[in-house]
Amino acid sequence: MKNIQLIEVPSEIGAGTRGASLGVEAIKIAALDFMSNFFIHFPSEKVATENRLLFEPIESPYAKRIKGIVTMYERVSKSVAQCIKNSFFPVVLSGDHSIAGATVAGIKIAKPASRLGIIWIDAHADLHTPYTTPSGNMHGMPMAITIGEDNKECAIHELDEDTIQLWTRLKELGTGSPKVLPEDVVFISLRDYEKEEKFLIDKHDMKVITTNEFRRKGAESIVKSVLRYLGDCTDIYISYDMDSMGSSISKGTGTPVGKGLREREAEDLISKLMQNRKISCFEITEVNPTLDTENLMAEIAFNVLQRSVNVLMMN
Questions:
Q1: Tell me, what's the pLDDT at 151?
Q2: Which of 63, 54, 83 is nearest to 170 (CA)?
Q3: Which residues have a Cβ under 8 Å from the Cβ of 245 and sit 6 or more positions away?
Q4: Which of 46, 151, 201, 290 has its CA 20 to 30 A from that of 5?
Q5: How many CB atoms are closer than 10 A to CB 277?
Q6: CA of 286: how far to CAs of 14, 27, 31, 245, in Å?
Q7: What residues does 119 pair with on adjacent strands?
Q8: What pLDDT is attached to residue 64?
Q9: In angstroms, what is the C-alpha Rg of the chain?
């Protein structure tokens, strides 16, 4: 049986739409509505945020609030690493998806010799860099940080020296760069990405499983093939962005996209993955209750969280 620790990171400085910092509390309210005492069962740590930067001018237009992101990466990676070193399984509840790169850094700090695989359940590839970003929002960049990509081949921006240095710090944080090999990444339900991101997916021949393929083959078959594909990895991290859900139910996330997973499909997928002993960290991100009606997105997030943790407890 695994000892589980919750790591709450209500940070939203990487997002373009406001409100993701309230996501963790929305998930807790969903637990109360379901009359669940889930959140008093497990030790929990709340990581301090830099959300005050939302009220300050943006210094780096192609990597918005990157100084604050560096600070968050240092805090979150330390927290995740300490959790693993203390023999706990980290379940990270983050505001926006930029934090995922810090979670990965933390796993690698705790397990520097590990070959880490990533299962990225998300409508978006998050493979932009400050050189290619259309928005400057850093929640579109954690995967590029993790695989150590600048993608200068597709550059459309020239960066100032400060931004370059801070971007390098993000990539190098902890155990250097890259943290994860591109061939050790699997995207599930990916369906909304720009040509610059497509360039990297093709360049590295990264594995993509569409919603249609998932639906056609079913959770059981997909999980088997994903785990076989990541067979050489010693550890696997699952990052679950709520916008992987179809837009009819994912109104409560900052960047909803149609043709996504249904609630039961997401639950089945993640709970089946959680049965594998290589899974060493799980993150849920991008719940934004300010965009939601009746807290639906947070309720779905809580259902997935509770079912996943139950599976972990049984293993």
A1: 98
A2: 63
A3: 253, 260, 261, 262, 263, 266, 297, 300
A4: 290
A5: 10
A6: 11, 11, 17, 11
A7: 186, 238
A8: 98
A9: 18
- pTM of this structure: 0.98
The structural domains of the chain, with segments of one domain joined by +, span 4-314
CA atoms of 140 and 128, how far apart (whole Å) = 6
Q: Which two tokens stand for residue 225?
A: 């093939």
Scored b (16 or more CB within 10 A) or e, 130-158 reads bbbbeebbbbbbbbbbbbbbbbeebeeee
Q: Structure tokens of 60?
A: 């780096």
Q: Give 96's contacts (C-beta < 8 A, 6+ positions apart).
A: 11, 12, 13, 14, 15, 20, 139, 254, 285, 286
Contact criterion met (CB below 8 Å) for 106 and 81: yes
Domain 4-314 is in which class? alpha beta
| Residue 286, C-beta contacts closer than 8 angstroms, at least 6 positions apart | 15, 20, 23, 95, 96, 97, 139, 241, 242, 243, 253, 254, 255
Residue with tokens 């807790």: 28
Angstrom distance (rounded) from CA 106 to CA 77: 4
Pick out the chain residues at pLDDT < 50. Answer: none
- Alpha-carbon separation of residue 287 from 7, 96, 252, 268 (angstroms): 15, 8, 6, 20
Q: Which helix (H) or strand (E) holds 106?
A: helix 100-110
Please tell me the distance from the alpha carbon of residue 269 to that of residue 7, in angstroms, as a whole number. 22
Identify the pLDDT of residue 157.
98
